[in-house]
Amino acid sequence: MKLLKMKSIRNILASTVLAISFISTAQDIKPNEVEQIMKKVADWQIDHFDGLYSGHTKPHHPLDWTNGALYVGMVKWAAMADDDKYYNWLKTIGEENEWQLHRRKYHADDHTVGQMYIELYRKYNDEKMIEPTKEQFNFIMMHPSQSSFHWKTPYHQDRWNWCDALFMSPPVWAKLYKITGEKKYLDFLMTEFKASTDFLFDKKESLYYRDESYMGKLDHGTKIFWARGNGWVFAGLTNVMNELDPKSKEYKYFLGIYKKMAKKLLAIQTPQGHWAMSLLGQDFYPTPETSGSSFYVYGLAWGINHGILDKTTYGPAVKKGWNAMVGHVTDDGMLGYVQPIGAAPGKAWPDKTEVYGTGAFLSAGSEVYKLYGGQ
């Protein structure tokens, strides 16, 4: 009797989600409404910057990767907004931290904030904003890590041996190459990115393992490909390609991976518009998750905007995905259903959020806005 009741509740929930999905995908997307929801989410996040919304006991350090991912999206919103307060907010963070990267010299997570520094440098042309990043990256190039990619070997995370890293550090190297014209940054990026991809990329599935510890493991009979982990990669590819000449061999290398992932992502999007936390395990992870899904919306919309992906084929996935993400923004601007910090498929809740989820949402909005005619 109890089992029957639980099945009945699950069926009702599934029907409700499908009904919401039908309504959200039918809605047209208007550029001014994209701007409005982005502003609401950005303002809420700034007002709650030190909030504790997913179980951690103290606010993240301003230079932590969690906030670094927020800034990646926030600076895209700042470029769209009519109000300089967003640039000023980001600039204050840089100034208060003397434009330093976070504490670990080699660790990709602690490089993430460099993406925001370089974007502010592009706006203000102030060398002090990028000098510490250049100095640290020059040191890394002169003293490259010799660590193994194998999980749990000494200093293994001094190289990009987990897929999240491909969002955190590579775009900084690409941006340094673009603003300086010094090919040494691009050469280092290519060597390390290729080594990481050779290690983590499953050619059959066109997806990345989070790290070596998930290779060969199954979850309900499916390979384990973490949604946010692959979201980090997909958005990272996009942010790297933004800095490269589309005619270059380096760009074409990243484009090849990007297209394979895009094709796979189109095939495995859920009917509700999000992507399952275990990408191949929709049946076992029905809960929406907005950080990984927002990164996919971002990357797919970017591909259409750049003439890489066919709009007729990929446009409906972007529309459905964006409407699903907007459906999880509360009335006051909090993005819900952001999976807490982790490394694998898990759980998410409507009242739990995280700064990196906001960053992903703002990144997605910046490309959806352009896709639907925003200037």
Automatic annotation (TrEMBL):
Q: Where is the signal peptide?
A: 1-26
Q: Does the keyword Transcription regulation apply?
A: no
This protein's UniProt keywords:
Hydrolase, Signal
A Pfam family per the record: Glyco_hydro_88
Q: Which GO terms describe its molecular function?
A: hydrolase activity
Q: Which domain of life is it from?
A: Bacteria
Q: Which GO terms describe its biological process?
A: carbohydrate metabolic process
Q: What is this protein called?
A: Rhamnogalacturonyl hydrolase YesR
Recorded source organism is Kriegella aquimaris
